[in-house]
Amino acid sequence: MKTAIAAGAAAALSLLAAGPALAADYVSIVQETAVNAPAEIAWKKVNGYCAIAAWLKVSCEITSGTDGELGAVRKIAGRIEEVIVARTPMSYTYADPNQPILYHGTVEVRPVDHKTSKIVYTLFYDQASIKEDARAANKEGRTRTFAKVLETMKAAAEAK
């Protein structure tokens, strides 16, 4: 019994001696674009969970669950798995539980009036594991990438 307690104590001490965990450093990037279409119509055109394939020009497949439903898993570019962790009638939020960087993204269409809407794309991530001198460039790159995504989504939402 004493041996088991000693082994447990040694394991606990080794975890404490391993060094402090990185403190979280959360970043939000919120971008939006006006759409010349009612929200319901825009959402129907951009709500597919694998629509990201067209937005980023990569492959995408639903590997588990039902497209657009809570718990659906997509695999992007054959390597990135993301799961829908929240949804509303005109939005979904996804996360990748397997990445070294904690992140979530939300795709949402909001009505402005009965003829127009806006698409809001929100990225939220922890940049603690990114080297400090690379953080600004990392954020700028993500911002540029998803600004282009929004342009593609806007074109799709407004297409006749």
> What is the gyration radius calculated from CA atoms?
20 Å
What is the architecture at the second tier of CATH? Answer: 2-Layer Sandwich
Named CATH topology: Alpha-D-Glucose-1,6-Bisphosphate, Chain A, domain 4
* Domains, number: 1
Percentage of β-strand residues? 25-35%
Question: Low-confidence stretches at least 5 residues in length (pLDDT < 50)?
Answer: 4-20
CATH class: Alpha Beta
Principal-axis shape: globular
Keywords:
160 residues; 32% strand; 4 helices; 33% helix; seven-stranded antiparallel sheet; alpha+beta; Alpha-D-Glucose-1,6-Bisphosphate, Chain A, domain 4
Helix and strand topology:
Elements: H1 2-17, E1 26-35, H2 39-46, H3 52-56, E2 60-64, E3 73-76, E4 80-88, E5 91-95, E6 103-111, E7 117-126, H4 135-158
Antiparallel strand pairs: 1-7, 2-3, 3-4, 4-5, 5-6, 6-7
Helix pairs in contact: 2-4
